[in-house]
Description:
The structure holds two protein chains of two kinds. Chain A is an alpha/beta fold. Chain A has one domain (6-189): Aconitase, domain 4. Helix content of chain A is 30%, strand content 16%. A seven-stranded mixed β-sheet of chain A has the order 4-3-2-1-5-6-7. Chain B is of the alpha/beta class. In chain B, 31% of the residues lie in helices and 16% in strands. Chain B has helices at 7-14, 41-50, 84-99, 115-122, 153-162, 187-198, 213-216, 220-228, 244-250, 259-270, 318-327, 353-363, 381-389, 392-399, 448-457, and strands spanning 16-18, 26-29, 32-35, 60-63, 104-105, 130-133, 147-150, 164-167, 171-178, 206-211, 237-239, 282-287, 294-296, 304-306, 342-345, 373-376, 402-403, 424-427, 442-445. A five-stranded parallel β-sheet of chain B has the order 5-4-3-6-7, sandwiched between helices. A five-stranded parallel β-sheet of chain B has the order 17-16-15-18-19, with helices on one face. Chain B starts with 6 loop residues before the first helix and ends in a 10-residue tail after the last helix. Classes of the chains: A alpha/beta, B alpha/beta. Iron/sulfur cluster is lined by residues 65-66, 114, 116, 135, 137, 347-348, 408, 411-412, 429-430 of chain B.
Amino acid sequence: MQAVERIESRTVVLPTNDIDTDQIIPARFLTTTSREGLGAGLFHDLRFDSDGAENPDFILNKAEAKGCTILVGGNNFGCGSSREHAPWALLDCGFRVVISTKIADIFRNNSLKNGLLPIVIDQATHAWLLEHPGADVIIDVVRSTLELPNGRVVSYPIDDFARHCIVEGIDEFDFLQRHIDAIRQFEETRPWTP
Amino acid sequence: MNAAKTLFEKVWEEHVVVAEMPETPAIIYIDLHLIHEVTTPQAFALLKRKGLQVRRPDLTLATMDHSTPTTPVSSFKDLAVVGESAANQIMRMQENCSAFGIELLGFDSEHRGIVHIIGPELGATQPGKTIVCGDSHTSTHGAFGALAFGIGTTEVGHVLATQSLLQRKPKTLAINVDGRMPLGITAKDLILAIIGEIGIDGGMGHVIEYRGSAVSNLDMDARMTVCNMSIEAGARAGMIAPDDTTFEYLEGRPMAPRGERWDAAIVRWRQLSTDDGARFDKSIEFSADALQPMVTFGTNPGMVVSINDPVPDYSHDPSFRKAIEYMRVTPGRPLTEMPVDVVFIGSCTNSRLSDLQQAAEVLRGRKIAKGVEMLVVPGSQQVKKAAEALGLDRVFVEAGAQWRESGCSMCLGMNGDTVGNGQLCVSTSNRNFEGRQGIGARTVLASPSTAAASAVRGRVADPRDYL
Ligand code: SF4
């Protein structure tokens, strides 16, 4: 995983509440055995109409969305399935950050493991971001703060370990593997076997 | 002093390999890892890249359910997988399992089925275990007093390689359900009502324990239906303390302990209830007394209404407006006016034998309405066999429904079983998200009896009129 300390970008705003993983990437894109190329399925049924034509009104199809790496969703983002294809698809389309008032547990975990930063912010900041699509936002990953173009700086909560892994580009798997002796000992000494 | 503990805390503490610190999560040990074809290929690829083995193939249970066809066949060799990439995914699963020494309950296995149906059915799901799967409805297994939750593919790789996971300890939420479920009301109605009450993010960050007399009175199939949809309330997991109902269900199942090990297990399992005086982070009281059949009217499982009540009106909220426009429902009117195109009985929420029995009870001696397509998809080949032994398949076929092989099928429409664009489907599954059952598909979540009654009437129907 790539180490990241700072992210600077215009925002793309998708104001719908409760954007679920089936909307982020529909199930028919899940027959792949690879993690590459999933961007093709990102928000597919919103980006394209039923005969495959691009929907010009959908925000991700607009010129101003190009190159943006911060996605602001409505309240409660990422509910639904455990498909890691959802963060893979977002990353494949260049997104590095998702912002909402609430982010579903499994989606958040999956995002952090891939270097997609899930940011939960307060209602007021969220409302401001919804009202100002395309705002230039600076995220200081080290300090866990978000700076709005009006100079206001707000901090967001993030698990210390997850932040550390993103800032240093550490793969959690390596951390887990370093404890393999403890795992072995646990297996050997527990009073009952599963 | 031995502090009073919740069921969740007891199971959690028994599995801590390395304790949680402010700067690092806990490492917890996993007793059972369920895997299926959709969320594993990239995890196996990680193992191959790093030259690692699967640490405990003996604690890994593999099947194929999501992209598998359900069209009736006389032999598994006739199964034709729909689509090249689905076929490739299934082949990859077979290769990976054989390369890593994992026994796969594949097409030719009579124990094949939806991963959350077969775990309990085989007796692999047991009280006090930690159970994970690359699938959010892993919460189902909590019905046995296991700590069971869904994980992503990266974590599937972690568990394959180390049989452990990095986890922060979640919070606890008690949902106490007292009272008596009225006649004709099922576990599905109960859990839909609960989600309607607490919302789709009401359980976020928490493990739910369902408690109270109405919960203890549920049989195991019904408890699984309730725990299954915990994730739909945003919860990490749902649990129910194991009791005699649990033990009776498990005794004699192929993977359940036997003899002395069974006796020892019962002693251990009896300890697994929340101690008097144990504290939950949050508690909610709920009564089952006045429950009605519940149906969803919108595009998430929290948008739910009693069957004869009018759809509420929150039109000031653009997301609400978007949902009801998609569903083509009218606020202020009940759902019972809506014509139905498709009825789906199946999914890990409602495809066990008792679910099929509930549906068959409504359909016996009746015909489904003209123009309605109805699929009945048993959760596993074992459920299929048991249902056929009771003649349920004939009830369904004589009513005009299709009787299928087991699998996830129309729950997420990955295998070719989809609902057409704009069609309304009354479904016993768990998600009514936009496009979940097919592009433009409109899903109404309901119990098996409500779904069956709706098939007969050709409109969303109150099952109590058919009992
Ligand atoms: S039946 Fe539906 S919810 Fe259950 S595992 Fe299959 S796809 Fe997921």
